[in-house]
Amino acid sequence: VGSAIALGSTLVSLIGSGAAAVGSIGANKRYDQYLEGRMSSLDKWYNTEYNTPYLDTTSGKAAIGSLRTYYGDAMKKVGQNSAITGASDEAKVATGDKVQKGLADSVMRLAGYGTQYRDSIRREYQGQKMGLENMQQDNLARKSQNWNNLMNNAMNVGIG
Hints:
This protein is mainly α. The chain is built from three helices and no strands.
């Protein structure tokens, strides 16, 4: 009778450990799929953002719009001031050229922000990717520990 009870207890313990292992495997698989989805989304975001010229971004377009408004107003003032002061055509052209050169210089500086923008995108991507990779490593360690626990429990039940 005692050995039958011990055998029954061993079977119940093995079944319980097996059920827990199956549940853990399913949860780990779902978590792996979740992390893979996050990694895929991150890669898509990075490829899109990194390859978008800075001047095509929302902030780049806003800056260009502000420059156009500022320098458009400046050109209107050149025309108005020239009419008021009776400036020669050569003076109007020279003043207009200065305004246009200022606009071109500003656009070139703005385009140079593209390098900083890409560096920022790359750093953010690397940081997030590292975080996801750490989560994957942690999950792998948990899977390994779960397997070790299952094997230890099976050995203990077999010995007990």
